[in-house]
Write a structure and sequence with these properties.
526 residues, alpha/beta, 6-stranded mixed β-sheet, 33% helix, 22% strand
Length: 526
């Protein structure tokens, strides 16, 4: 990626569009030219609007400066909407003339310039925006990267100034709603993610909240959390999520329709995923035909949606686990240099599916921050809890575990309470550990259990072997107890901590035993 940027020179012509999510089709369009060497705009774009400050709960812990009463928050997007800023995007210029034999070169030149401009767009807009609008307290001018070592990152004008919590909701299809309309974003939230992007340790922490989580929705009563967006839009949804999670502040939101993920996967050329077992059935309710074979394979957008929506394994929670697998695979794919020429189209596609109160400068700061992330900087967790019993309620729910919730909020969002502090003093030897073999040695799980017993870890049980053989043992942090996972990793003396909720649902930690355990046993014998 860095070499591609370093080797490019020349002026780039690109169209930009200023679009409001509440008035599709009415954006202002213009053209400006960016010089690669000077990184300055010869014709600056028009002044952009600011993203709205977003408030949740009664505590003033976000970055807004005014309080918002409950009724105003309830109305939220449902009545007034939120100002949305979108990426500027390039488009084809079909009016070029000349020798037809030069067309392949011109096409290559265009796409090379287009994806370079994605990174350099902040350089073109940054100076103008800084002069005409006050900076969001979320971001600060980028001043900490030297000219020798910054590479691709130097082209972004803004950095995150502090940790930021962003609520991301994937919205179910609303039948007959026009694509890109506000009606298309009025459905139930199929996916609910709370992200914490923290520049102090260069990490992203992601909490998945099951859509069937039983919560109190103001004005509605006890219901599933995915109804909040239907009842009061993004404002009510954020308020409910915040209160459910000990009033953790939510600074911004992003809503995206379900069509976006499918098209995004196709645009990046598919994503590589391990399908643990055959997935085949017809989902009449979702109008979805699911047919996936077992094993490693590259899924297109339609297949990725099948993988995410499969419900015959652990219901809604199984879907959450597979969503985490897909998000991790998508992140790896987006980091590939082969995806760079597709960035302009990615941006255009995302514009029509997304509603957010992030400003343009904040989006640029987030993109710049993401370029610095390594694979281990992303930590994912599922909201701890259990399925409701068959006759416990009229509907099926995910019932949140309060102590598990407190632990996750403390470790992932740095919010503490007296109950959470008490849980923090628990010995790592008390955690419930699932042992899962991935090797050809059928007796290995029992030897691992014996080893753990010698180290005074007795709360262990066995689960069905994992079909994909692993080279390195994984310690999966199923319920977000990173402290216990680090302690267990030290006791084992091998493997790596996998901060995701993709292990056994009954466990707090799942050990997937890899070939490295057998290699160590062989070394000891010799």
């Amino acid at each position: 990626m860095k070499e591609a940027v370093k080797g490019f020179r020349g002026n780039l012509r690109v169209e930009y569009t200023n679009v409001s999510s509440n008035s599709p089709g009415n954006g202002n369009t213009g053209v400006f030219v960016v010089d690669h060497d000077s990184a300055s705009s010869q014709q600056p774009p028009p002044q952009t609007g600011r993203g709205n400050n977003f408030h949740t709960g009664e505590r003033k812990k976000g970055w807004g400066n005014e309080s918002v009463d409950a009724d105003t928050r309830r109305r939220g997007d449902a009545e007034n909407g939120n100002s949305t800023q979108n990426f500027a995007h390039p488009s084809h210029n079909n009016s070029s003339k000349g020798n037809p034999t030069n067309l392949p070169f011109m096409r290559w030149f265009f796409w090379s310039g287009a994806f370079v401009l994605t990174a350099m767009i902040s350089a073109a807009l940054g100076a103008t925006l800084a002069l005409v609008t006050p900076l969001s307290p979320l971001i600060a001018p980028n001043q900490g990267i030297s000219s020798e070592g910054g590479g691709w990152r130097r082209n972004f004008q803004y950095d995150l100034a502090r940790p930021v919590n962003i609520l991301v909701m994937g919205i179910d299809r609303v039948m007959d709603a026009p694509k890109g309309s506000s009606e298309a974003l009025a459905g139930r939230s199929d996916t609910i993610l709370l992200l914490r992007l923290d520049p102090t340790d260069n990490s992203v922490r992601m909490l998945s909240v099951p859509r069937d989580t039983r919560v109190e929705i103001p004005g509605v009563g006890l219901a599933k959390i995915n109804d909040a967006n239907v009842e009061g839009g993004s404002a009510l949804a954020a308020r409910v999520v915040s209160r459910t999670l000990n009033d953790v502040p939510i600074d911004r939101y992003v809503r995206v329709t379900s069509d976006a993920f499918r098209e995004l996967v196709d645009l990046v050329g598919g994503i590589e995923v391990f399908v643990p077992h055959p997935m085949k059935y017809t989902d009449v309710y979702q109008n979805l035909e699911i047919d996936l074979e077992q094993g490693w394979q590259t899924l297109n957008g339609d297949q990725a949606e099948q993988f995410a929506r499969y419900r015959k394994e652990n219901g809604d929670i199984g879907r959450v686990q597979r969503q985490q697998v897909l998000l991790k695979a998508l992140r790896q794919r987006l980091a590939s240099p082969t995806v760079l020429p597709r960035l302009p189209k990615l941006i255009r596609v995302m514009q029509q599916y997304i509603d957010t109160n992030l400003s343009l400068e904040e989006i640029l700061a987030l993109v710049g921050f993401s370029l610095e992330l390594e694979q281990d900087d992303l930590k994912m967790v599922l909201l701890p809890g259990r399925f409701s019993l068959k006759d416990e309620y009229e509907a099926s729910y995910w019932l949140m575990d309060p102590s598990g919730r407190d632990r996750v909020v403390r470790e992932y969002f740095q919010e503490t309470s007296e109950e959470a502090q008490a849980d923090n003093n628990r010995s790592p030897n008390q955690v419930r550990i699932a042992i899962q073999n991935t090797t050809d040695d059928p007796e290995l799980s029992y030897r691992v259990a014996q080893y753990l017993a010698q180290k005074e870890f007795y709360n262990v049980y066995f689960v069905k072997d994992w079909p994909d053989q692993l080279r390195q043992t994984q310690i999966i942090v199923q319920q977000g107890d990173l402290k216990a996972a680090a302690a267990l990793n030290k006791v084992l003396g091998l493997g790596k901590v996998e901060a995701s909720s993709t292990g056994d649902l009954r466990s707090e930690l799942t050990i997937r035993i890899g070939q490295d355990w057998l290699d160590r046993e062989l070394r000891i014998k010799n």
